[in-house]
Automatic annotation (TrEMBL):
It holds the Pfam family dCache_3. The chain crosses the membrane at residues 12-32. SUPFAM superfamilies: Sensory domain-like. The lineage of its organism: Bacteria, Pseudomonadati, Pseudomonadota, Alphaproteobacteria, Hyphomicrobiales. This is Double Cache domain-containing protein. InterPro entries: dCache_3 (IPR029150), Sensor-like_sf (IPR029151). It comes from the Bacteria. Residues 49-218 form the Double Cache domain.
Length: 236
């Protein structure tokens, strides 16, 4: 064992040891601060991306509602629905569908109370089914006599819907439902506009289904989705 007899040498060694320990502590603190700064920046960017996505979704919803509201008040269409004239209703709404489909609005459906599909302009041979179990907005729009929009499950995929009740006097005679697929077109548009990769997942019980993505690997877990739905922002 080396012995330091000189007091000055001992002091210098002690100072060196303290300095080394301080460097280790400061280095660790610096790395921690750096990581904290990165995490804060990532969270801030994630929140900004989320705000952009929700704003775009709100804009799409307003578009579907505007079209639904416009159709719901057309006297000729109301008369056809009141008379139960499915073929006449299809003929009229298909003309509208041809105009709005290039804009991404691909679905026009009319339901009658309480939530029975009267006709689908995009699928004329499919009617008579009760959409109430999966389309709460349709039920709510007719019950409250008030237009409502948002994302719900369609016959096959998620869609952005705008539902507007058709009212004749004080009586609700039906509901106009305009839909825009919530999938590939939406995520590609977000990628092009904001430069952010997006994936849309649908949770069904303990299973996850990826509906659309711009990522090469967008696998996620039910636990991750539950954390996100609870309001937590996290990275992985």
């Amino acid at each position: 064992m080396v012995k330091f007899k000189s007091i000055s040498v001992r002091i210098m060694v002690a100072i060196s040891l303290v300095a080394a320990a301080s460097c280790v502590v400061l280095g660790g603190f610096g790395l921690w601060r750096q990581q904290a700064t990165v995490d804060t920046a990532l969270e801030r960017e994630s929140r900004a991306d989320y705000a952009n996505l929700t704003a775009a979704l709100d804009a799409d919803t307003r578009t579907t509602l505007a079209v639904a509201n416009s159709l719901a008040v057309i006297p000729e269409l109301k008369a056809l629905v009141s008379a139960g004239d499915r073929n006449g209703t299809i003929a009229l709404t298909q003309k509208v569908l041809d105009k709005i489909k290039p804009l991404g609005l691909e679905l026009i459906t009319i339901q009658t109370p309480p939530s029975i599909s009267f006709m689908r302009a995009h699928a004329p041979k499919v009617f008579g089914d009760d959409v109430g179990p999966r389309r709460k907005m349709v039920v709510e729009a007719m019950a409250d006599k008030k237009a409502i929009g948002g994302v719900e499950v369609g016959r096959e995929i998620l869609n952005v819907f705008g539902s507007s009740p058709m009212i004749d006097g004080d009586k609700v005679i039906g509901n106009v439902d305009i839909g825009e697929p919530f999938g590939d077109a939406f995520v590609k548009n977000m990628k092009a506009r904001f430069g952010v990769d997006v994936a849309i997942h649908q949770m069904n019980g303990d299973k996850m289904k990826t509906l659309a993505t711009t990522l090469t690997d967008s696998a996620t877990s039910v636990d991750d989705v539950k954390r996100a739905l609870s309001g937590e922002v996290f990275t992985r």
